[in-house]
Predict the structure.
Amino acid sequence: MLFSNINGINKKKIVLLPHNNPDGDALGSSLALLFYLRKLKHDVDLISPTEYSESFKWLPGTEDILVFSEQTQSLVKKKIVNSDYVFFIDFNNLSRINNIRDFFLCSKAKKILIDHHPFPFYFDFMFSDPTVSATSILVFRFISYMNHLDKIDKEIATCLYVGLMTDTGYFRFPSVTSETHFIAGKLIDKGIDIDFIYHHIQEKYNENRLKLLSKALKKLKIIKKYRTAYTSIKASDINFYSYKQGDTEGIITYGLGIKNIVFSVFFFEEKENYPIKISFRSKGNFDVNFFARKHFGGGGHKNAAGGISEKSLSESIEYFLNIIPSYYKNLMFSI
């Protein structure tokens, strides 16, 4: 029914919605769908619940993204309430769109999930597969199911490739399969410029971002007994260094790059008196999705997850340090 309605002659009002602070996969998947559904003559809006990183603003179609703010609040609500379909892209829990989730109480739109995270909430239509390495793969499958692979042009292929590249760690994470490379090959055949894409994603270190990274590395703590590394950034740090959305991306990977470390944690106090945002990364068998869900009201994937803490930054770190000893065996024997 969904495919026939989307593929039908009747024009639909469609809203595409990535999660808060959308990353490369969320933006790439959403922009690819934006271009594709507009080719089918639908009335499509892409709404971001928050600002997104400067490093992705070169992507085709970003000029059409409607970012939620106090100024756009009424327009965003109107578009959601009046839509026929809302696509939830690269997330499966409404807590990931906290700024606008209440708008759906007034909307009769059919809710469509396209996502690769485990344990999804219920939606009207679900394209959910936690075994794939990126939501961009599911968008490619969606277009394939519609028998429209011929509609993938250079712009759509570029967006999907960015999603694949960023969510697979440049095709090196364990979740990468032959299908991942097969789809990447199909996208390359559309004439995308891999060198251009790679350098635009990599060229992300401005002076302030490097200073924040330096600050985080100075605070980096290693707990050899538990094969764990952690660091943090305070609100005063980002105020001093003129923080922009995305400037803390990648900090967590430095801890995980240390020999014998299998668990890396980054605590981020973006604003004083706001919840502490926490990122978790792991190697091998240590399940940070379980860890984040159990202790920090979050979730994600086995080796990459996030959570929040309503405590202060120092209290959040202390709470974390008190938890870690109970995971001694898990951490010591993680491969």
In short: The mean pLDDT is 91. The chain has two domains: 2-202, 207-332. The CA atoms of residues 171 and 181 lie 8 Å apart.
